[in-house]
């Protein structure tokens, strides 16, 4: 029997003994239960969760309809493996995703377990379709911790350090970043240089892009840039892959981030909030591209598990029935207004940016030409946690605080979070 007055302390000590340092916790707490936008630790402390499992819980923690769907599915089939025999949930979810992404166009879906799996399989599909080896990704992008995912990721620390040699035929270019003076035109010129000096376009299978960079700092790709990429890939027969693992399912105010640019990607990777807390991912793409791999070339033992499919179908119903896109937009506007008020008061906030309810604030030590302030960011995060708000950082320099609150977050909870953040900023800057 645990007699520790603070059960979290003993569990964290055990964590240090049995879990390697390569797996980190952003916050030194142990969560016991959660509901909606609130979580509670093993000591009974309540927190507003503006991390949402790193963008996994757009419908909130333990949404009753997700819980009910999983319970009902567990009584029928907990696991079958789609590679052995089909089951209704996988088929229905694949159909709904194909319609959501492709609209009236012919699209198909294949399901996996993790976001990294989805990205890797999207690359496999693109290479199989084109017969080309090379892939272009963007600096600051994040695409998973597998070998290929790490290679595609455009950040050295901690994702690539000491893990090489990396997968071949992967190239990186800059991502548009107005704060640092990197324009869409600059990046397109980089692509032209890449084609002239490293790899010709007819040897490029795919260009992989996050419509809003997630771990890289919540940088939205300009509409004109996304449209230019679509034109470029069309010209050269390159597969355009939109990595919507973090941006999908209402996070940007639309069901998918690419919709803001009025383009149609060839392949879309999905995960995170699709499952409402359960692990599931997928690749959704044009039928003629998806059909390229031979039978048996795609799949996975747990891919599209029956339990996760049930959860995902419930999530899609929640979006339709509870007007979650509209609720997310309203919450995002309220949060952005509050963040801009804080920016006006605190010059260390160099930029408030994002799209819809996918928002972040970047910290610099002074004017825009001065260094990033990662230390201050960590102080703010720690002060927030001590006052009952969970947030995490991002950005290549880890000087950005990102907000991934469930789209179900109430006005009262949003205002409470802003008040905690305001106090944390005051404490950290004085």
UniProtKB/TrEMBL annotation:
Its EC number is 2.6.1.19. This is 4-aminobutyrate--2-oxoglutarate transaminase. It is an enzyme of class 2 (transferase). NCBIfam families: GABAtrnsam. Transmembrane segments: none annotated. Keywords: Aminotransferase, Pyridoxal phosphate, Transferase. GO terms for biological process: gamma-aminobutyric acid metabolic process. The lineage of its organism: Bacteria, Pseudomonadati, Pseudomonadota, Gammaproteobacteria, Oceanospirillales. Pfam families: Aminotran_3. InterPro entries: 4NH2But_aminotransferase_bac, Aminotrans_3, Aminotrans_3_PPA_site, Class-III_PLP-dep_AT, PyrdxlP-dep_Trfase, PyrdxlP-dep_Trfase_major, PyrdxlP-dep_Trfase_small. Its cofactor is pyridoxal 5'-phosphate. The keyword Transferase applies. It comes from Vreelandella sedimenti. Belongs to the class-III pyridoxal-phosphate-dependent aminotransferase family. One of its GO terms (molecular function) is 4-aminobutyrate:2-oxoglutarate transaminase activity.
């Amino acid at each position: 029997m645990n007699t520790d007055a603070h059960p979290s302390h003993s569990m964290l000590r055990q964590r240090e003994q049995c879990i390697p340092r390569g797996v980190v916790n952003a916050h030194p707490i142990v969560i016991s239960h959660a509901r909606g936008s609130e979580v509670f630790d093993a000591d009974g402390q309540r927190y507003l969760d503006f991390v949402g499992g790193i963008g996994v819980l757009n419908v909130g923690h333990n949404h009753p309809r997700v819980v009910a769907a999983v319970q009902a599915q567990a009584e029928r089939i907990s696991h079958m493996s789609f590679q052995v025999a089909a089951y209704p949930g996988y088929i229905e979810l694949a159909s709904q995703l194909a319609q959501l992404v492709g609209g009236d166009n012919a699209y198909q879906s294949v399901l996996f377990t993790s976001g990294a799996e989805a990205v890797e399989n999207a690359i496999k599909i693109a290479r199989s379709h084109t017969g080309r080896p090379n892939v272009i990704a963007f600096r600051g992008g994040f695409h998973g911790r597998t070998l290929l995912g790490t290679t595609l990721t455009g950040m050295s620390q901690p994702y690539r350090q000491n893990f090489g040699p990396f997968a071949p035929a992967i190239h990186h270019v800059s991502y548009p970043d107005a704060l640092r003076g990197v324009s869409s035109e600059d990046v397109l010129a980089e692509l032209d240089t890449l084609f002239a000096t490293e790899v010709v376009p007819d040897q490029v299978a795919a260009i992989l892009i996050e419509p809003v960079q997630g771990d890289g700092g919540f940088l939205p790709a300009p509409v004109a840039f996304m449209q230019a990429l679509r034109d470029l890939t069309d010209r050269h027969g390159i597969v355009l892959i939109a990595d919507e693992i973090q941006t999908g399912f209402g996070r940007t105010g639309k069901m998918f981030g690419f919709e803001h640019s009025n383009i149609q990607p060839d392949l879309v990777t999905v995960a995170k909030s699709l499952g409402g807390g359960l692990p599931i991912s997928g690749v959704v793409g044009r039928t003629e591209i998806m059909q390229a791999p031979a039978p048996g070339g795609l799949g996975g033992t747990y891919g599209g598990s029956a339990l996760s499919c049930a959860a995902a179908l419930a999530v899609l119903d929640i979006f339709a029935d509870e007007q979650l896109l509209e609720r997310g937009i309203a919450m995002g506007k309220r949060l952005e207004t509050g963040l801009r008020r804080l920016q006006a008061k605190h010059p260390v906030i160099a930029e408030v940016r994002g799209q819809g309810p996918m928002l972040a604030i970047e910290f610099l030590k002074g004017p825009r030409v001065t260094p990033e302030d990662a230390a201050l960011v960590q102080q703010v995060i720690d002060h927030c946690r001590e006052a009952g708000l969970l947030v995490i950082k991002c950005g290549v320099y880890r000087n950005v605080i990102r907000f991934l609150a469930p789209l179900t977050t109430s006005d009262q909870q949003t205002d409470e979070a802003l008040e905690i953040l305001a106090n944390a900023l005051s404490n950290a800057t004085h």
